[in-house]
Write a structure and sequence with these properties.
311 residues; mainly alpha; CHAD domain; 2 domains; globular; disordered N terminus; CHAD domain-containing protein; CHAD_dom_sf; CHAD_dom
Length: 311
């Protein structure tokens, strides 16, 4: 007889599962498949966020939300989410975003710095204060995801998607777009996204944080589109393109994390002399690291520029 004590384990955070589109699909069917894929990722991470306050589950839920909003933006010329639902999505993003920002500071940025420099006593209270802030925001995010408001939002999104409620508000031209082959539609989206990214990327040399952020957002949207439509194209074409985008996005993300961290540290130390020295040290350290990151970003950009979007 097995008498071992068993303890419940934290559920694993759920990433987006592979999306398979058929070239024979029309735009409407493909939109439903993409939205379903995003909603599945969001809903699969609910327990981790609500019950376990799991950092990675929160991150993956946010990724699912970003993918969903990117998909809505891609198809906005053919159909639109009602304004009330858009407002509720904005509310959910606002509940999760601050917790994730403080998670990165407390769980990644500060430990990396403390591990790479000699012991610095003033850093300890900063780490403790950041962890307290992250924990409080995690609790708030968990309450939001566990709320009736969240359940209403997900229920309305599900019904809107399953019942194709956008049809009631469409003009004939919109209906015609939804009947297009998805391969033709995807080609236009990917070309448009690439042109926007190339235009913004021209300003990367010695760019300020705001300009880098704009490039990062464009890279992220371009990557999501390429991943959504990846099954429509040969793997040998898609993989190098998505890989180059992912590397560029990741490095720009690290630089953005440093910029956000500097802002959060300013909030943390404002009016608290005990945190001022450690916060100032970290901000200076991050500024120096950001300068080093510029060179790496430019190399990754040069690797991406010659590539062409699938299709």
């Amino acid at each position: 007889m097995d008498t071992a004590v068993r303890f419940p384990t934290t559920p694993k955070a759920v990433k987006a599962h592979a999306l398979k589109l058929s070239p024979r699909m029309n735009v409407e069917k493909a939109f439903q498949a993409i939205m379903r894929n995003c909603l599945d990722q969001i809903e699969a991470n609910e327990t981790g966020v609500v019950k376990y306050r799991d950092v990675e589950s929160l991150h993956q839920m946010r990724v699912g939300l970003r993918r969903l909003r990117a998909a809505l933006g891609m198809f906005d010329d053919a159909l639109s989410l009602p304004l009330a639902l858009r407002a509720e999505l904005d509310w959910l993003v606002a509940q999760l975003g601050p917790a994730r920002d403080w998670d990165v500071l407390a769980g990644s940025t500060l430990p990396a710095i403390s591990g790479s420099v000699e012991a610095l006593a003033p850093l300890v209270p900063v780490q403790l204060a950041a962890a307290d802030k992250a924990n409080a925001l995690h609790a708030a995010a968990g309450e939001a995801v566990g709320s009736e408001r969240y359940q209403d939002l997900i229920g309305h999104l599900e019904r809107w998607l399953d019942e194709r409620a956008w049809r009631a508000m469409q003009l004939p031209a919109d209906r015609a777009r939804l009947k297009m082959r998805i391969a033709d539609f995807a080609k236009g989206i990917l070309e448009k996204d690439q042109q926007r990214l190339l235009k913004r990327g021209r300003k990367l040399k010695q760019a300020d944080p705001e300009a880098r952020h704009r490039v990062r957002i464009a890279a992220k949207k371009t990557r999501y589109a390429a991943e959504f439509f990846a099954s429509l194209y040969p793997r040998k074409t898609v993989r190098p393109y998505v890989g180059a985008l992912a590397s560029l996005q990741d490095e720009l993300g690290l630089m953005n994390d440093a910029s956000v961290a500097a802002s959060l540290l300013g909030q943390l130390s404002e009016g608290d002399a005990a945190l001022a020295e450690g916060a100032a040290f970290v901000r200076g350290y991050l500024a120096g690291r950001a300068a080093q990151g510029d060179g790496k970003v430019r190399k990754l950009w040069k690797r991406f520029v010659p590539l062409r979007a699938p299709g």
